[in-house]
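Sample intake sheet
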Amino acid sequence: MEASVMKRKEVVEEIFLILAEFYKYPTEDFYNNIISSDVDKQLAKLFKAVNYELDTPQFTFWVGDFKGLRAEYSRSFLGITAPFAVPVESVYKVWTNDTSFQIPIANSKGYVMGDSALHILHLFEHFQLQIPEEYAQMPDHLTILLELYAFMIKERSLEECKAFLKDHFDWLGDFEEALSKTNEVKFYLYVVDVLKKVIKEEEKYLEKQ
């Protein structure tokens, strides 16, 4: 493998691992990395390294204090108050496309552990990886999807990566719409906007390969 290709894979891996951190419950360490502009600067450097046509991120501008960030995370994703937007793929898709399932929720949305979750579980087993315990009932949580792509870009073929992006990130628009209905969640709306742009840039690259 050419050194430049391997370097690109390492950079993209780092980008997706950083983005995955935003969808975990905020830690003080990660918050400090945001307010110090370290995250903005690091991502800008990484974007440039892989020729993503993106502006320097402005997470520092959108974030409030640490207590407020945790409160916003809870309002946005944990269902402390309604409305909220769960960052789990299955929730935004028909629960299953398998017509043999004769249960009321089969053709409905809004449920976890649907087809996409089962596919992620299959991939983890195939790649001999372990789902973290806290995500056992939602293996298609956005954090897991981003971390899995970070693994795939290093270890799997570009065709597999292309298929994964197409299959498992096509719900982000619906997620963003649900999040926009949540009160006072400007920071996480910005986070989703950046993620969508990164996905688009990565898809553009893969389409050329």
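Comment: Residues 1 and 7 are 10 Å apart (CA to CA). The two ends are 14 Å apart (CA to CA).
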